[in-house]
Structure formats: structure tokens, C-alpha cells
Specification:
The complex is a heterodimer of chains A (about 425) and B (about 55). Chain A has about 425 residues and is mostly helical. Chain B has about 55 residues and is mainly alpha-helical. Chain B contains one helix and no strands. Classes of the chains: A mainly alpha (about 425), B mainly alpha (about 55). Chains A and B meet through helix 2, helix 3, helix 11 and helix 12 of A and helix 1 of B.
């Protein structure tokens, strides 16, 4: 039976070809212009379109998958996309099969001449056996077509096709490092004002040079007036006032060191002591002056300490503020530096980096703003620090002024007398 | 069924197929976009953490 059918099919197919040749030779209207030809043409065109569309759609999907993979996606998201991809392919295949089925059904509709006749369709010129075509015979006998025209062959998308980035995102070019971002960061210099005075205060008082000068003067006086050294001790001591008068610097230092009116009174007694008769009085005055100096120094130190205290507190607050700004600058600078590193690492994702940059930019601005604040704090602190430095110098001066020893040195030298010339 | 009706049926089936594929493609793209947005969010979070912001 199958052989018979096959022969019949071949016979019909041969008849079709023969008929077409006959038509061409007889100059009749081409078969392609007939309704049947139009139908075949429509079917062929539809199949071609559907096949191409399905193929393109699948290929697009592959592009998306490859694009997604190129974006270093996480496994979870990759699986989701894969799942979508599979569903997509399955659905397209299903629709393609539906379409093919429809085509087959439409074509198979030619098989039943009675239906065709009832529908008013004349037998085809191609079908001398009243509507039986080779294909319809195959369908009737359930013989699979060797090369069914209705097959929608959807080749798998080529995996190695060059992937064009689908327009999922508006893939703007990777932003060049803008001025703000690419500019080399200014080194963050935490410029905390120098809290230490540049030059240490020079302690005032009697220096070794002064004493040497005094001794030299005494020796010169002795040589010039040998008779007056009869009473060596008081004579030499009497040199002190005159020497002091001559030495403005010494006098000035005394005035500074003993800055109270009481101290000045004692100092004046020394300065005005008369040789010989006021030795004892001057010596006592000197001792009282020294005692008073110690007391006055302590008093002054106390006053300085009281004045320093609020200034230290103020300085501490300013230092804390400066440190806060410096810390913030350091923190933001580190973030900006990290961002620059991230740009290199993640630069191929401009949209992501654009969002990160939007958060970094305020920090860049903040760095500059905090630098300004730091500068303002420094300016504000400068006069305070200068004041503190001056007070600390005063304090150091009074702390290191060892009056009694110095006066003892003077007395010692004076009592020792001038060196005898050989 | 007349030939004209068959042609119409084929065309209709073709249109339906194309329309469905178009809609499915759009939905697929939208789904992928949403997934990629999630990916971006995760990446941004990771980068922020790395930057300490």
C-alpha cells in the first residue's frame, strides 16, 4: 500500500511538473500568478519570516546572556537570566510549532475535495486527481514528508558570534576622569600651628659675662686707686652701685627681674649705697632684695599660671577642632583615593561608577571646605599661641632665675679681691 | 476554506507569531534589565563597602 502511495505521489508530482511545462509552452498565464501560486508564495514567505524572526529572537537572547556574563554578574542573577533564556527559547519553539501546525492544517485542507467543493473551491490545475496533492496524500497516509516545507528550523544561536552590547543600558562611554576626579589630589597637609615658640626666651639676670666684667672693673679700679683698697671689702662692694650705674643693661635687668615697686626700693638702696659707710646697709638691702625677688617670682609665676590656664583650655579646644578637621580630611582623602583605585577596577561599568562618583564628589568638596576651616582655625589660634609662648617664656625666666647663688658669686668675687699682679 | 481564506489564515498566524515574539522579546529584555539593576545595586553596595562610604 505504501509503495502504491509512493508511486502515486511520484506520479502526481511528475504530473505537476509536466503540467507547468505544458502551461509555459502553451503561453498560458504562469502558474505563479494563480491563486494557488499566491497561496504557496504566502506560505513560503510566512515560513521564511517566522523562521528568521525566531532565529533572530533567539540570537538576541544569546546576546543578552553574553552581555550579562560580561558584566561579572553574581551567580544568583546569572541563574535567573539563564532561566529566562531557557523559557524564552521554549516559548519561541512552541509558537513556531503552532505556526507550522497551522500551515500544515491549511495545506491539508486541500485533501478533502468534498470540503473544497462545498467551499466553492475549484480543483487545482496542479491537481488532476481533484485536489489530491503529493503532500495531501502523504498526510492522508501518515507518511512523513522527506523534506517538509513547513519545518521551521531554528538553528541555535551561534555562541561565538561577536556580541554587540544590547541596549539594556544607555552605555555611555566610560567617563574620562573629570577635572574634579582626575585632578591630582592636593596632598593633605595637616597643618597644625606650631605650638612651640620659635626662640626660647632668654633668661635675664646676671650672667657670667657680667660678673667677669664686674671683676675686671674692680681690678682696674684697684690698680688706679691702690690706696682706697685699705678697706678692701667695703671698697670693692662700693663698686657695685657705680658699676651698675654704668651698665645700663644690668640696671635694666634688675628692673625687669624685680618688677615691683618694693623691689625697686631695695635695688635703689644698693645702687645709691655710699662706699665705706653703707656697706652693711647695702648688704642687708641686697639680701632683702633677694628674698623679695624669690617671693615676687613665686607671685609672678602664680599669676602667669592663672593667666595661662584659660589660654591652655582655649588652645586645647582649637587643637581638638583642628584635629577633627584633619581627621575628616584624612578620611575623605582615603575614600577619594580608594575611589580612584575603584575607577581602574570597575571602570568598565560607567553607569555604576557614575553613581559611586555622585557620592564621592561631595567628599571631594568637603575636603576643600575642611581645608579652609583648618586654615581659619590656624589663623584664629596664632595670636593665642603667640601670647602663650610669651607667657611661657616669662615663666621659664622666673623659674630659672636663681638669685641668691648669683649674688653670692658677686660677694665671693668681691671679697676675694683683685688678683695681685706679680 | 477558500484559497483566499487560507492565505488570510496564514497571514494571521504569521502576524500573531510576530506579535507574540515581539512582546516576549520586550518582556525578556525588561526582565534582564531588572536583573541587571539588581546586579548593579549589589556591585554598588560592594564598591561602597570597599571605599568605606
Amino acid at each position: 500500500m505504501a509503495d502504491t502511495n509512493t508511486q502515486k505521489i511520484d506520479q502526481i508530482a511528475g504530473t505537476e511538473v509536466q503540467l507547468e511545462k505544458t502551461l509555459e509552452q502553451s503561453g498560458l498565464e504562469s502558474i505563479s500568478a494563480s491563486p494557488e501560486a499566491q497561496f504557496e508564495s504566502t506560505v513560503a514567505e510566512a515560513l521564511s519570516t517566522v523562521t528568521e524572526t525566531a532565529q533572530t529572537a533567539k540570537s538576541d537572547v544569546q546576546d543578552y546572556v553574553q552581555y550579562a556574563q560580561s558584566q561579572d554578574i553574581f551567580p544568583e542573577e546569572f541563574n535567573e537570566i539563564n532561566k529566562l533564556n531557557l523559557e524564552f527559547g521554549t516559548t519561541i519553539d512552541s509558537w513556531s510549532q503552532d505556526f507550522n501546525k497551522t500551515i500544515d492544517e491549511v495545506k491539508a485542507d486541500n485533501l478533502d475535495p468534498s470540503i473544497a467543493a462545498s467551499a466553492g473551491v475549484e480543483p487545482s490545475l496542479k491537481d488532476p486527481t481533484l485536489g489530491v496533492t503529493a503532500e495531501s496524500l502523504r498526510a492522508r497516509e501518515n507518511i512523513p514528508a522527506e523534506a517538509p516545507a513547513a519545518e521551521v528550523a531554528i538553528p541555535p544561536a551561534a555562541e561565538n558570534q561577536p556580541v554587540e552590547s544590547p541596549a539594556i543600558y544607555d552605555l555611555a562611554p566610560i567617563p574620562e576622569k573629570s577635572k574634579e576626579a582626575s585632578a591630582e589630589p592636593e596632598p593633605i597637609k595637616i597643618d597644625i600651628p606650631d605650638m612651640v615658640p620659635e626662640e626660647p626666651a632668654q633668661p635675664t639676670g646676671y650672667t657670667q659675662d657680667d660678673l667677669e666684667d664686674l671683676a675686671a672693673a674692680v681690678r682696674a679700679y684697684e690698680q688706679a686707686n691702690p690706696k682706697r683698697f685699705k678697706y678692701k671689702e667695703w671698697t670693692m662692694f662700693s663698686m657695685i652701685p657705680s658699676f651698675m650705674r654704668k651698665k645700663d643693661a644690668w640696671s635694666h635687668k634688675l628692673e625687669i627681674a624685680y618688677s615691683t615697686s618694693k623691689a625697686k626700693k631695695w635695688a635703689e638702696k644698693i645702687l645709691t649705697a655710699k662706699p665705706g659707710i653703707e656697706f652693711s646697709r647695702a648688704k642687708t638691702a641686697l639680701q632683702r632684695l633677694d628674698d623679695h625677688r624669690i617671693e615676687a617670682s613665686q607671685q609672678l609665676l602664680k599669676q602667669i599660671a592663672e593667666r595661662l590656664k584659660p589660654r591652655y583650655e582655649k588652645r586645647k579646644k582649637l587643637e581638638a577642632k583642628a584635629q577633627f578637621e584633619a581627621d575628616e580630611i584624612e578620611k575623605y582623602t582615603a575614600q577619594v583615593e580608594n575611589y580612584r583605585g575603584a575607577v581602574e577596577q570597575w571602570g568598565k561599568y560607567p553607569d555604576i561608577m557614575a553613581q559611586i562618583r555622585a557620592e564621592i564628589q561631595p567628599r571631594i568638596n568637603a575636603i576643600n571646605k575642611r581645608k579652609e576651616r583648618l586654615g581659619a582655625i590656624r589663623l584664629k589660634a596664632m595670636p593665642l599661641l603667640k601670647e602663650i609662648a610669651e607667657m611661657e617664656a616669662q615663666k621659664k625666666k622666673y623659674e630659672t632665675f636663681t638669685g641668691p647663688d648669683r649674688f653670692n658669686d658677686i660677694f665671693s668675687k668681691l671679697r676675694k679681691g683683685p688678683e695681685k699682679s706679680s | 476554506m477558500t484559497l483566499q481564506e487560507k492565505i488570510e489564515k496564514v497571514k494571521k498566524a504569521q502576524e500573531k507569531f510576530l506579535s507574540n515574539v515581539d512582546a516576549l522579546s520586550k518582556k525578556y529584555k525588561q526582565d534582564v534589565q531588572n536583573i541587571m539593576k539588581t546586579v548593579d545595586s549589589r556591585k554598588i553596595a560592594a564598591i561602597k563597602k570597599e571605599l568605606g562610604i
